[in-house]
Amino acid sequence: MSGRGGIPWLAITCFVLIVFLYAPLLVATLYAFNSGNRLVWPPEGLSLRWFGHVFGDELFMKAFSTSMSAALITAVVSCSIGTIASLVFTRRSTRIARLVEALGRLPVMLPPLFIGIGFVALMKATTLSPSMTTIVAGHTIIVLPFVILIVAARLRTYEIEVEQAARDLGATPIQVIVRVTLPIIAPAIFGAFLVAFAFSFDELLITNFTSGTQSTVPIYVLGRLRRLVDPSANAVAVILLLIPWIAFGIGQVVLKRLTGSGLSDTLMRQGR
Amino acid sequence: MHIHRRLEALLLSPLGLFLTTTVVVPAFILFGYSLFIWRFLEPIGGLTLENYLEGLTAPVNRQLVVNTLMIGIPTTIGSVVGGYALAYYSVFGTGRGRRVLFALIVTALMASYLVRIYAWRTLLGESGVVNSGLQALGLIEAPLEFLLFSRPAAIVAEIALFMPLAGLAFYAALAGISPDYREASRDLGAGRGETLMRVTLPLTGPAILGTTALTFFLSAGDYVTPVLVGGVGSSTVGTAIATKMGPSGDYGSGAAESFLVLVGFVVAYLGLRTVMRVARVLPERAA
Known about the structure:
The structure holds two protein chains of two kinds.
Chain A: H1 9-32, H2 49-55, H3 58-89, H4 95-105, H5 112-126, H6 132-157, H7 161-168, H8 173-202, H9 207-210, H10 217-225, H11 232-259, H12 263-268
Helix pairs in contact in A: 1-11, 2-11, 3-4, 3-6, 3-8, 5-6, 6-8, 7-8, 8-11, 10-11
Chain B: H1 5-34, E1 37-39, E2 42-44, H2 50-57, H3 59-92, H4 97-110, H5 113-124, H6 129-136, H7 151-175, H8 179-187, H9 192-203, H10 205-221, H11 225-230, H12 237-245, H13 251-278
Antiparallel strand pairs in B: 1-2
């Protein structure tokens, strides 16, 4: 969008901004392959020793498996309750439907800190201890708006007449949902599943209040960072970067192939 | 297919009940907690507004509010302006750069929250890239210590943290503008700058208001960045609330401060909305 023949200021600005966003990630990644003990620039040499160090650490492996379980359960739970509610949002606009829909959007408008301290209060009032259940519940809250966004976007574009056809042929409403609607929107649910997985795996601000003595990967990293310089932290950082990226990437590619529009197309249409 | 009432209730109840239990009910519990003084994780004495009075008057809180604003305001301006520029090019730009840029915004958004904060340490730290580079060039003798663990470091890290989110929100808003309006503006003789200021910006006014408010709110509630890169002098209301509701277990004053922050935020939002209306970048009836 340059002025014809002029200097493309906007393009240059955007280039600088992208460098600003990615330079820190690039440097942290390079340090993860540093063979030395110290974080000096330039790195002293290439090595995978910090990855070996990390994967040999029992605490990390435990945190990793906790994060994986939490992310999988969160994705299953959020896609289940998010999908069935979306079926209503896209067809009915009763007061109760609009109220629940607004409730479903609320979590993205609140700092995660507030959701986290809400859990502190809830656990205190019900004498519930931190556990996998509380971790998953916290993650489910913040991924739900995204699940609903992705699934509802698909429900708004597909031809709803096929459902009526199934009804006319004698199917009950539940049969229609299970045997007609769900198979058609399955790719969108799959995409929502991966987004939920990605966000859950990386969640830190709520987990900090809900995990108790258990560590997830982000909590493990935060603990290490409090002890200042720790070269193996960079290796964990790379793992923490890659897993959500891979999940999102799979969702993007698979959805693009199956439906013609990828996850990012859905995200960009989000109406905040 | 028509969904009848009973099926509607059945399909909505899991989501409704879950969010009511985990978001709405805790807000009421927190409010209850804020009306008591807490000692050793238990409420003592009767109902009191002391936590709110203390929250409003304690000198230490004044410093926290100053820090929150001094970090939150530049962070919000930086993220919103940068995000708008990124979105503007991804929507109206030319060539392949447009698509690539959009993919880069989404990828940045999906990058780990913690790593995006922490990574600034490797750049700004005592032996980080910037200090090592400047030393190698002979421009400085000793590492510049103020680069890390300072308020500017927290601002820089938070701008990078929230800019992709702002970019995505503005992308949706800009892509939703009918090209007719911008073309009409040009046909009527307005230049690029005038079209931007008098047509495009006002049409995205609601998104600007919403994104500005959200970014500021997220910055105030981010209790990790101020600790990891901001250093001791950068405590915000967010870090204070997180400490009180976490390690120190002072639930009464932590909860009261949360509600004070919420009220302050609503006031700031309404103020911003008024300013934007007066400046004619927000339609009277929107948002």
